[in-house]
Amino acid sequence: MALRGCLLTGQEAKSPRRGQRDRTRSPPAPTSAAVHRRSICAMADWEIRAATADDVEPVAEVRAVAMRADLERLGRYDEHRVRQRLRDAFVPAHTWIVELDGVLAGCVALRPEDDAHWLEHFYLAPRAQGRGIGTAVLREVVESADRAGRRLRLDVLRGSAARRLYERHDFTLDHEDAVDVFLVREPRDRRAAADAGARTRSGWFGAGFGTGEGATATS
Fold it and tell me: What does the alpha-carbon distance between residue 85 and residue 109 come to, in Å, rounded to a whole number?
């Protein structure tokens, strides 16, 4: 899958016209060169691609920068731990990379569990913030979750400004502890959730993504 700004180019043999939405199709496993594309206008040339094992260190750096202010506010910032936790949890088959002007600038992951997908490791480097990229990515994820009838879960640090972004996209409080706030989002069409397993899913929740199926890269 590749989401781009107003100009769509990339690994495909032929790009759609500027601003044109491409035909929706089931996404491949993360190692495939083909991509599922949707055109979302933004203020920069950006895209999402499937992650590989080689992305782990750049992503760890993005996490360290993106989370530093909130972790320092809570007295929990540690230069090694903030990177190591990403390394320990990084699964390329569940992860997508945000690239801005061809350079890694963030990531997002969807980890499948029986009752939901966990939205994790959603980080953007400072140079990618304030451009509408995070909102565009999140909107695409939740719309795909609605189509697939999938519940989403996530957690954010207490006091994080990111909570407001999630609440604007219908995430609600599930529970919280001394450090984290846990949010949940039900699919808008609950009837779809009841029979989601009996029908073909597409987009972020299609075959090969979120399951590790067909993926060769591991961490």
Answer: 14
pTM summary value? 0.71
Residue 132's Cβ-count burial label (10 Å; 0-12, 13-18, 19+) is middle
CB 85 within 8 A of CB 76: no
Q: Are 218 and 31 in contact (CB under 8 A)?
A: no
Pairing of strands 46-50, 152-157: unpaired
Q: Beta strands of the chain (E only): which ranges?
A: 2-4, 37-39, 46-50, 95-100, 103-112, 117-124, 152-157, 172-176, 180-185
Eight-class DSSP state of 54: G
Q: Name the phi and psi angles at 35, rounded to 5.
A: -140, 150
3-state secondary structure (DSSP) of residue 156: strand
pLDDT by residue for the chain (219 residues), tens only, comes to 545 543 222 222 233 333 333 433 333 333 333 333 333 333 458 999 999 999 999 999 999 999 999 999 999 999 999 999 999 999 999 999 999 999 999 999 999 999 999 999 999 999 999 999 999 999 999 999 999 999 999 999 999 999 999 999 999 999 999 999 999 999 987 545 555 544 444 456 653 343 333 222 322
User: At 219, is the secondary structure helix, strand, or coil?
Assistant: coil
Among the listed residues 129, 157, 152, 167, the one whose alpha carbon sits nearest the alpha carbon of residue 44: 129
Pairing of strands 2-4, 37-39: parallel
φ and ψ at 144, to 5 degrees? -70, -40
